[in-house]
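Q: Could you predict the 3D structure of FAD:protein FMN transferase?
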Amino acid sequence: MPNPVQSITFQAMNTHIDLMFVAEPTAVAPIERFAVDSFRAAEERFSRFISGSELSQLNRVAGARCLVSEPMIEVLLLTEGYRQITDGAFNPLILQALEHLGYRETFDLVKQRAEYPVQPEEISVVNLAELLIDPSMKSIKLPPQSKLDLGGIVKSWTVDRLASDLRSLFGVQQAFVNAGGDLTAWGGSFTSGDPWVIGIEDPWDTQVDIGILTLTDGAVATSSKLGRQWSTSQGMMHHLIDPVRMLPSHSDVVQCTVIGPNVMDCEVWSKTICIRGFEVGLALFEQNTLGYEALLFTSDRRVHYYGSESSLGQTWHGIPIDQCRFRPAII
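A: Sure. Here are the predicted structure tokens for FAD:protein FMN transferase:
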């Protein structure tokens, strides 16, 4: 008798976590404990909203060299790699800008405020290259008067680590892990191995899906300027900060979904395209990725696709695409 599909849901990192996997019923409880512990441990280490987290402690001593944990070194080295390939668009040294604009608490609390008073003074731009990392000594030094926000990568990093552990420690051959839109899947769904079906949210009507993705093995991430917004005395703000201006991005891309082999790559590139915009962001994406595809929604309410022509109708379904730019076929 084939093993059934099991389902686990829980809250962590201020988002909803969904885990579906094919396994014996006796495996559900240990996998659930492991998954919850994995997300909670990452949250307790990396959350900027927990005063005792490792991240918060580092932010309090910016300018001094500190010993840090192996996970912190791993994540910071990843951020440096992403900074380079995104031409600086990915920069976690933006926390001062977010706090100045009113994003000081979890978004559930921020969105309850009527309006946040914002002073018009500029926030100093901090170059991520000034973050000094010594992997051999397991130490780092933040630039003076800077603050890290690793929310743009830690969720997808945790998804990636959990997926690896589920395969290696529990022998899970078919699964789907979704952490608030940062999603990875492998082995297909159910006993037939059919692709997992993933809805793509309409950015202008979040109650409906604008189309679907079918995915057997791979990852998906979506970033949007429209979902995480709040009101201030200087107008509406959102959380995707342009590190050149240290203000919310004014680019023409309001939402971007990226699919590919790795969920962290998908997350970083979906944010980069939203921050840099259609032309610059897509050019960076094209130059620095292979095997990744993107669906972009622009402020004029047009839908753009970049990827393989063969994926339309096979991976992307029912989406009203206005413009396609096809990746050259690999010979």
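Q: Anything worth pointing out?
A: The domain at 5-326 is CATH 3.10.520.10 (T-fold).
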